[in-house]
Amino acid sequence: MPRSRLPSKGPSLSDRRRTAREPTARHGRLRRISPAAAVARVIAAAVTIGLVSSVSVSAIALAQLSGNIHTVVLAGDQNEPAVALPPALGKYEGGFNILVVGSDRCEKEGGCKDRQAELNDVTMLVHVAADQQSAVAVSFPRDLVVPIPSCPKEDGSGSYNAMSAQPINNTLSYGGLACTVLTVEALTGMDIPYAGLITFNGVIGMSNAVGGVPVCINGPIRDPYSGLNLPAAGEYTLMGQDALNFLRTRHGVGDGSDLGRISSQQVFLSSLVRTIKSDSTLTDLGKLFGIATAATSNMTLSSKLGNLNTMVAMALVLKDIPLEKITFVQYPGALGQGGVYSGKVAPIKAQADALFRILKDDESFTLAAGTGLGSVVEDTPAPAEPVPAPVPSDGGSPATSASPTPDASLVLTGVKGQTAAEYTCSKANN
Predict the structure, then answer these.
(1) Class of residue 74 by CB neighbours under 10 A (exposed 0-12, middle 13-18, buried 19+)
(2) pTM over 0.85
(3) Pick the CATH number of 13-426 from 3.10.20.440, 3.40.630.190, 3.40.50.2000, 3.30.160.20
(4) From CA 350, how far away is CA 249, in angstroms rounded?
(5) DSSP character for 47?
């Protein structure tokens, strides 16, 4: 496959790929910092964030970065006493769940004429197992039709009414980050005490901070809706607005659907994780500070997550999880359904229940349904997409022809995704 790149986008792709494939990073180097930086200790960290990843932040100069953080109280935190900060930095104990939400809030000067409300462009639940040996990031299609529970109003004056059969990306405009958390908790049965909201500017800043993210495409991608223009098959190191456009493109990849966009995003996310966990990032203090500044300056965090000690404790867990144990999956959904699902994504409840049962029990599993509509394993043909099951006339979830319950080997046959160790290419929609 020919290799091409956008002009003046950063370091050589071949150099970056060699770096991304290197063995475990030499984290010990970060401890050799001069005590002159005693405003806070230097640490290496990666914390999951909004639109771009399941692993993100590296923090330096805690006092300065703490001043950048904006927090919001989740519904489950309102009646709880304030949580004391840990007296010293160290690994988080046990497992945890974080909901990462990417906002499509307009950040252009003068506003945006084509957008009336802030929607969650990306919704991703990151689950770290209790033994801290694996992490799973579940992406929810923005067009997934779900019930929205009663959500507290942001000003504390009461609650919004519950609604049925709404796209999940309406939750952010309806009741803010707390409403998105409540909706995902009701949908998955998972307790979510931590959440973070990141804006477009945060995505741009973080892609710049790491020096660009290498991505592979199997054909030209030109999408006037997102502004993405990659003229030929090959690899590109994406930074700034190009990285954001790649993550937002829907019409340019797969079949132009929301499901295709998710698997294309996972091409980027797996590469981002490899980039952040590479030695060239973890030993570069300039990159670490840039990542931390970009994230904390452009994020709204839940109150329990909104202190750097907690973020760092989680990051110290995430940075030690092997790439092959970091898995990105799609929430099971079907296209082409009628009724309330017309033009949207219908949940496949049986497959979703099997997935979240495994996550709650922290059981290991493998995927057997391919990477999805918008990506292919490098140099291999895309897997065939099964025909969606019909939706019952009563508006329930689509039926499945066979039980999706995993067998003794815990192979999930209906859930699409990939690990961070897998090199995949976005599939051009042409």
Answers:
(1) buried
(2) no
(3) 3.40.630.190
(4) 29
(5) -
